[in-house]
User: Fold this.
Amino acid sequence: MKTFMLLLNHAPDRYSDLSEDDFMTIMTDYIVWTEKLTADGIYAGGEKLADGPGRLLTKTDSGVEVHDSPMAELAEVLGGVMMIKAADYDAAVTIAKTCPHMVHNSSLEIREIHAVD
Amino acid sequence: MREQDQEPELALDAIHRQLERLARRERGRLVALLVSKLGPTRLEMAEDVVQDAIIAAMASWPYKGMPDNPGGWLNRVARNKAYDRLRKEGREQPWLDELEHPSGIDQQDKAGDDAIGQVFGARITDPELKLIFLCCQPDITPEDQLMLTLKVVSGFTAKDIGALFLKKDAAVGQRLARVKRKLRSLEAAQTGRSITDGPSRFEVKERLPIVLKVIYLMFSLGYAPRRGDRLMLRDVAEEALRLALASADARETASAEASALAALLAFQASRFDARVDAAGALVLLRDQNRVLWNRDLINSGFSYLQAAQSGSKVSRYHLEAAIAASHAAAPDFAATNWQQVLDVYTRLEAMTGSPVVAVNACVAEAFAGAPEAAFLKLESLAKHKRLLDYAPYHIARGELLRMLKRPIDAAVCFKKALECDASTPVLAHLKGRLAASV
Assistant:
């Protein structure tokens, strides 16, 4: 079994203007999915990233420059990561397709976690 | 194969229901707990921090999964947020320590989780009861009292409440904010009492009739919505039932009147499963499969009715419960003791002077064997203008005309009923009867 990371992207303003009811409805779908995958032994944890810009560090001749990461200008930002267990990319894709993220948002990237042993 | 497909569906439904319940049921319970610590003047702060906790849960649980004790999780987060806010306010008060190390709260957290899924079993906590009394201040209008109770105690959103009262959610939000401001000024004006005190014995006595009325209205809204595409809003009606049972059981509010209301609502709720068919259509009392009536609720109806005999005063809830008991006791529609039902309706009509009660009394009289006299009386009620756009009035006229073998006139009445406000399933039922020539 391999572990895959799902990188959940969404539009920068996706959740900023939602009514409480709409937010609840969407998040309930995600929770139900996570709970089901957990019960099936597929879900392996996840983290939500805090809203708002992070910091972007760039090396220049004069040292390291720090800026707020450009968020508003981007089409999509990373909102959170989830980890799942799957035999291979095909199986991971099949599982990821059932993620409500693909109903409520438009893109999701899957990366296999490099197993050392 | 089919079973494999269905099983996960059911599990998902259960989680959906659990989350919805948490957002509603737990919200009221947590707000009540916080208000009992923070004092009624901080009702809005309590609501805000509980709201923040729920939003935090919704953001975190998709990634982390649900905690083992979701109610306790919400409670802890809400309490910490309240603590932060109070610190920002710079108001150090002795009870902050209690908020930080609350006595008894953790046991109650667990109780909240145990209660999930038991719609009828969930017991009210003492702080919740205090909160209902807070929402039922005599100085605010009955509709405001009801809206506020639905929002604060029962966790309905402004959108839910707007749908119930046929108002825009923004308007409901503004109105609730206005009521809360008024509440705050009323509570602030009551000096000389500790903020953590609940209502005094005098206030309980004074406000109990209002509280019971609000619960009664809440049940009616859920039992027979005047519009919308659902025959019943069971969550609304069941919440009212829970509050009624709680007020009848709690030491501070136990009274003959509260028991009578609990009996009435238990009898009415016992028929929920039989009252609607698989397609969501209305099933009339006479056509209901009485095997589907909830025996447990009927039994509690009878025991509350017994408890209600303790007082000297007979309230309208006593009489309505007695009518509901007659139906509950009848093995089938034909075996209903209509004379008994009619006698109680006659007393109820004399007590309330309500034309709506008079309509029901006429129907009972017709079934008791006097359809002609009942119909004449029903016609004389047309002087009450508000009955003319009240669908059940026209349905009753149609029903009696049908008994008098006047199907063409009956059809006219059912057509009139179709022009009144009613929920879609009720209108569909009427259209069906018209098509089958009544």
Summary: The interface with chain B takes residues 19-21, 23-24, 27-28, 30-36, 38-39, 43, 45-48, 80-82 of chain A (CB under 8 Å). DSSP finds three helices and six strands in chain A.
